[in-house]
Amino acid sequence: MPEYTIGQTSELLGIPKDTLRYYNKLKLVCPKRSASGYRLYTETNLVELKCVYVMKYAGFSLGEIDVFFKGRNRLDENELKCSVLEMLNAKKMEIAIRITHLSKLEALMKSSIKTIRDKRPSDAATADRLIEDIFADITTDKT
What we know:
Blueprint lengths: L5 H8 L3 H9 L6 E2 L5 E2 L2 H15 L4 H12 L4 H41 L5 H19 L1
Antiparallel strand pairs: 1-2
């Protein structure tokens, strides 16, 4: 199985070396060490790093990612398994809400483009209604 230095891993995945070191310090991704102490990343480590990257993109905190990894590796512990499932379900709901917001934002962009392109100020009322709707959604979700 191939092994990659921190520089190679950084270049392969586009993740800064300092971030890789930080993830190692947090024990999210633990590469093995060479005889001279250099970090050596395996294919498994690369998959773990990609998982961290995707989970961060999805809005997970590093603490939540840590809980996920611990829970994934110890599925026989019911309490941990339940907390991981609870966290994943909560995040799934957050993502569903964000998708709804993004769909409304997309409609707003389409309406605004049409208004500007077609020079029809009467279409601005549609954009205003969408803005009111989106504003209500995002301010309600924060409380």
